[in-house]
UniProtKB/TrEMBL annotation:
Pfam families: UDG. InterPro entries: Hypoxan-DNA_Glyclase, Uracil-DNA_glycosylase-like, Uracil-DNA_glycosylase-like_sf. Its EC number is 3.2.2.15. It is an enzyme of class 3 (hydrolase). Keywords: Glycosidase, Hydrolase. Residues 19-168 form the Uracil-DNA glycosylase-like domain. GO terms for molecular function: DNA-deoxyinosine glycosylase activity. This is DNA-deoxyinosine glycosylase. The keyword Hydrolase applies.
């Protein structure tokens, strides 16, 4: 290879959807951060508020809080309560974890959400980059909300302020109960 030759970086690949036929609300992020890609887990960065917020909304404290449990248990708890998790982007080029660094993004097949989750009642975009694609998710004929990003990069919003906004959405879509559903 000549010194002037450049190698194009390979696109980063996102994570698969956490979704089931009983999903009633799906939270769409933009694309997993570097810590999440390394761990192959949604919201793996220790300062991301996603799991602490969901735990607070469901009354899970101490060792029962999702952020203190193995990832497989977090996913099982989310599924048992009707919560789905995915991202708007399937792949992209990006240095680091900031949404502002995302380039050449390829969208996930968001138009299939209702097919995969026939009980879906709503879609919540986690942050501004995800919400840029609300026009797509709105075509599914469901309520769509924009939530403040749980990312540590969204430092202008306190945990309490984020929690209040997320509580409103979870209440709207019936996911604010303190125990898993039995249906």
């Amino acid at each position: 290879m000549c010194p002037t030759d450049t190698v194009e970086p390979a696109p980063l690949q996102g994570l698969g959807p956490i979704i089931s036929p009983s999903t009633t609300l799906i939270v769409l992020g933009s694309f997993p951060g570097a810590a999440s890609l390394r761990a192959q887990q949604y919201y793996a960065h220790p300062r991301n508020f996603f799991w602490p917020i969901v735990s607070a909304l469901w009354g899970l404290e101490g060792d029962a809080a999702l952020q203190h449990r193995p990832y497989a248990e977090r996913v099982a708890e989310a599924r048992s309560r009707g919560l789905g998790i995915w991202d708007v982007y399937a792949s992209c080029l990006r240095e680091g974890s900031l949404d502002s660094a995302i380039e050449q993004a390829e969208l996930n097949t968001l138009d299939r959400l209702r097919e995969w989750a026939p009980g879906l009642k709503g879609i919540a975009h986690n942050g501004g980059e995800s919400a840029r694609h609300m026009k797509i998710t709105q075509t599914l004929g469901l309520p769509v909300v924009k939530l403040p990003s749980t990312s540590p990069a969204n430092a202008s919003w306190s945990f309490e302020r984020k929690l209040a906004a997320w509580r409103e959405a979870f209440t709207q879509f019936g996911l604010d109960t303190a125990s898993p559903r039995t249906d």
